[in-house]
Amino acid sequence: MSMRAEKTALVTGASSGIGAAFARLLAAEGYTPVLVARRTDRLTQVANEIRERTGTRCEVLTADLTDPKAPEWVVSQANEIVGGIDVLVNNAGLCRNETFAEAPWERAAGEIQLMVTAPTELIHRVLPHMRKRGWGRIVNISSVSALGPPGASLLYTGVKSYLLHTSQALDMELKPQGINLTALCPGQTRTEFHDVMGVREIADKMPGFMWQDADTVAAAGWKAVSKGKPVCIPGAMNGVMAYLTRPMTVNAAYSFGRKFNPFKDTAA
Fold it and tell me: What residues pair up with 181 in beta bridges, in sequence order?
C-alpha cells in the first residue's frame, strides 16, 4: 500500500447498527469515513460522534441505494471529496416481514437493487482506485442465514447467499492484486433491524447467548478482511449453527471452488 496523507473508507447503511459500528472502528483505525444512508439526521449524529471521539474527519452523503442512479453518484461524490476509496463496507440492507407473492413488485425490486445491484456496482466503481494502488479491503454484510437452508422474509436468504458467494468469487480474482474481500455473516445482532421487520417481540424472546452487539461483529469483520479471510462467521454459536446446517464447511467450499477457478493461474 503506497503512502499518502489520507486513508478513506466508504460505509453504506452507516446511520445505525453494524454500519455505524464499522464507521467508528475505521475512524479509530485512522481512516476518513464517508457515511452513506437515507437519513441525514442520523448520519450527521454518527459523524459528529466520530469527530468528537476521534478528532477524525468524517463525511456524510445522503443517498437512497434503492435508486439505480445512487451508486454511481455516491462513488463520484466520494472520489471528489476524499480522492478515492481504500475500504468499502457494503452494509445497507433491509428485510420486510411479508411474502414475495403479496409484496408489490416495486418493493421486491427495491430490495434487489439495494442488496444485490448496488453493492455489486459499488465494488466495481471503487476497484479502479484500489487496483491502481495495489491495495483495498471490501466487506460485504451477508448473514448466517446464507449458510443454512432457505428461509422466508421475501428475498432475504437468496440475497444474502448472493453476497456470500460473490464475495468469495471476487476475492479469488482480486486477492493477487492486493484486494481482499470478506463476506461477514453475522447472526442475531442487537440493532434496529428487528424493529424495521416488525418482529421485535419475537426477537426479544430469543435467549441472550444467541445475541451479539454491532461493535463485536464489526471488529470480527475487520479482523477477517485484514487477514484475507473470504468468510467470517462471528461468534461461536453462529459457527456451530453454520456447521450443523451446511454439508460442506465454508472454508472447504471456498478451497474447492478456488481449485477449479479459471483464474487460478493468477491467484495467490
Answer: 138
**Catalytic, out of 31, 156, 162, 254:** 156
Q: Which pLDDT does position 247 carry in this prediction?
A: 62
Q: Which of 214, 196, 226, 218 is nearest to 86 (CA)?
A: 226
Residue-wise pLDDT for 39-73, tens only, equals 999 999 999 999 999 999 999 999 999 999 999 99
Phi, psi of 111 (to 5 degrees): -65, -40
Mean pLDDT value across residues 190-208: 53
162 is catalytic: no
The answer on pLDDT for 128 being more than 70 is: yes
Q: Report pTM.
A: 0.84
Q: Do 12 and 33 form a contact (C-beta atoms < 8 A)?
A: no
CA–CA separation, 268 vs 253, rounded Å? Answer: 17
DSSP 8-state secondary structure symbol assigned to residue 181: E
DSSP 145: G
C-alpha distances in Å from residue 107, one per residue of 64, 71, 73, 111, 227: 14, 18, 22, 6, 37
Closest by alpha carbon to 81, among 92, 91, 73, 71? 73
Domains and CATH numbers, the chain: 7-262 (3.40.50.720)
